[in-house]
Request: fold
Amino acid sequence: MNFKHLIVGALTTVALAGPAFAEWPEKPIQLIVPWGAGGATDQVSRVVAAELEAALGQSIVVVNQPGASGSIGSQAAWDAPHDGYTWTAGAAKDLGTYGVTGKMDTSIKNWDLYLNSALASVISVSADSEIDDLDEFLEALKSGGLKVGTSGVNSAGHSTIEALSAAVNGSYIHASYDGGSAAVLSTVSGETSVTTQLISEQIDMLRAGQLKAIAIISDVDVDVPGVGTIPAVTSALADFTVAPIYFGIFVPGDVPDDVRAKMQGAWDTAIANSSKLAEYTEGRGSIMTVHSGDDAQMRVWPSIQANAWLLHDGGQSAADPDKLGIPRP
Amino acid sequence: MPDFSLVAVAFYNALSPDQLFITLWATLLGVIIGMMPGLTATMGLALLTTLTFQMESGSAITALLGMYVGAIYGGSRTAIILNMPGTPASAATTLDGYPLARQSRAREALGLATIGSLFGTLVGVLLLVFTAPLLAGYALKFGSYEFFWLALFGVVISGRLTSMDDPLKGWIAGFLGLIIAMVGQEQVFAYARYSFDYQPLTGGVSLIPAMVGAFGLAEILSNITGSKTPIIAENKGRILPRFRELLRYSPTIGRSGVAGTLMGLIPGVGEDIGAWVSYAIAKRFSREKEMFGKGSKEGLIAAETGNSAAVPGAIIPVLTLGIPGSAPSAVLLAAMVIHGIQPGPLIMIQSAGMVYGVVAAIVLSAIAMTLYGILLTSPLLLVLRIPRERLLPIIFVLCVVGSFAIAAREFDVWIMLAFGSFGFVLRQMNYPMAPLVLGLVLGEILDKSLRRGLILSEGSLEPFLTRPVSAVLAIATLASIAAIAIAGFKSLRPKKQG
Amino acid sequence: MTNHRLDRITGFVFALLGAWVAYGAWRMPRFEDRGAQLYETPGFTPGLLGCALALCGLVLAFRSAGPNGQSREYWNEVMGSSITRRRALAAVGLTLGYGAVLFGSVPYLIATFGFIFCFIGIFELVLTPVDKPQRSASVPQVLGVAAAIALVVAFTTQYIFKTLFLIQLP
Reply:
């Protein structure tokens, strides 16, 4: 049957005719968002992806691969060929601590980081709460029994309350919810008394007066449009380690040099000057922080160190951070 | 009271040629995505969010709403014709839709489902316009304790409804689904349950591949195994139901519309539960209970009204609280935020016009969806004429690609195959697939809200039974279990000798 | 095998499965060192669910026969005759072969073409239904139609998913 051979032959040619020696990027890039569609990571990644599409002249396909605190999608991006056509995204401190929690055998140093924004956690209580300021809150934390809603173990909200509780030697009841907005809602509805989620997840409720901001995890007071000035946590806890959560796009570090050069070029021009990203970050109460290369590594390191040791001291680590090259801060 | 001049302006804007064009193509794309097994409303919305990024924000939101309304409706086409729900929302539609198609009444069933969806959307929209702030308060009443009962209630009711003669088998399927939902990392200690150190399992079993397997592949296998060619009679009957008939079903439509909207409102509970709850209520009130599951028109209308009403329902908390009511509406919320629209408690004060814009876009896509429903019926019925030996392999290819498409993971294809082959064996012994899939949806909610509730109450069961909404759900669930359990234990007789 | 007998066997299988799930839940870490209460532990819910499944399985295994308990339809529908047995086996083999083996290891177009071609060929030529023992079409005709459908479906689905929906197929 010559005809059949012909068809199979033609099919093989079509399917195998691969790209050869063309300049990157000559086919669509896959951006794996390791969290669900609609979440904080998903939102900012889609904004950045659309801006990069224009800068790189190639379409970027966002794929949501949620599961296991984002480690499944990150692993998938690592397992794909390191040719610059598969990226992942998320919070740098998550990627940096997968090794400590044993979810994925990787280190932040294996990745090229392209940071786009930074967020701080805010301590908030419901509008009719008896707690009015940071001192009263810390008092309540010391005496124990506060119900705290976060989006789960090792989330930004959980790390914050763990660190606060350790700082004043207090205790609390921890309730984890599906995502930051559900945790924030639990405080609004009164099921929990405090939330320590990221500012972007609380901003609407803060603006509407449904939540009362107690303090922001920052070393300076922050003036948030539509909310007012939120006092810094260091006003009562002077030596509290403050490390913002950096979000970005992550590419395996051993991609070809031309990929890195082009990405850095696009990042420093198109993203750094992106009005869409500026508008988005302002609306969500986050800070636009466009960094790449060594600069980015240097910025995220303190939050990774702090979180790795917080996890280790809390008995939640699978490996000693020291052995993974993360010294105690 | 809504400001009617703003409503009029919103409709005037939505009827401008370019907005109308967007509604038309987005709704059609939604219907097509909804029909494909494996491609869901959530995925369609996520895809369209990226594609409409450069559009002006109003147009982008119009496109997304069209996609949402179209996709939830589109799933009913596949459910009726092939006994495979195109999206999880149309699982309840298969119960009466497919039997109707088997009785050569596919044309009627497709028409009824279309009208049901239209009215469901309209009921939901009316509730959205008149009572949104009030209903938002109701969504806040759902805490951990209520979610626990709702999850248990869902599985118990679905087990009973889908396996009339033998609820025990429905419950076994439901518990299997709940147990499979336990696989993967849990929330309190981030411990990976039943994952056997295999990384893909730490993320758990995803719903869509499991559903495509349990309904799609299992249906393909049992269909092709039958050694006799199924006889397909000429499809008679009219597409659009008579007015008199509609009038007769209007109480069902009203009840299902309200039930669907209320389910849509509750954060994390979406169109699929909306359909199930309104189906259960319709059966409870029906004068032809025995027809349910055997081709009841009332059941079909209830399911389709319920899931479509959940769409505006799920959008209510998006607009008024900034909290999504369902998975697709979470993507809608994200898209709004990306486009610089900040939904939340202040929206009615700050930008009521935007809210009515959303209302107008939903109403117009519901009308577009109805038109497509009528126009597409005849071409869709041609599918029934393709010999199964040729149709089934094509559908299987769609099942495989659809499962893969969710997250570009081959693991999901294996999940689909496993659910398909075991589902085939279980179906042979009259185990319904719907509670299995629903158990998978609700398992995580059940686990998290049970343990979170106990953590918050410091181990006390009291709030599970004393909070008002909790108490109602608890009584309904326990009564339903008790009625069947008593009958079940009566059939346990001591073993006879020999 | 009667339906009642088959139910009894599956009842035991579910009871065992439920017990195994509950045992797995019991073996899960309880995080006592971190002050966890019983109701917080990862095994709490799966343990309850495992027991519930085991209970349902036991009821199924030990209940008396229902109205259609003595009928043999569950078993006979697939395993009853050699033709249904062979059709079921072929269908499972073809779908698993395509989904688990070919898809992902062979280029999409070739895998899909091969699967559809074989599926139509086998079920229209070899394992024909009992009520249609003679085919009206000749063997080359059937194979021609099969090849045409396979080709069209392979290319159309690739176009729809890859180009329109931007999904990277293997």
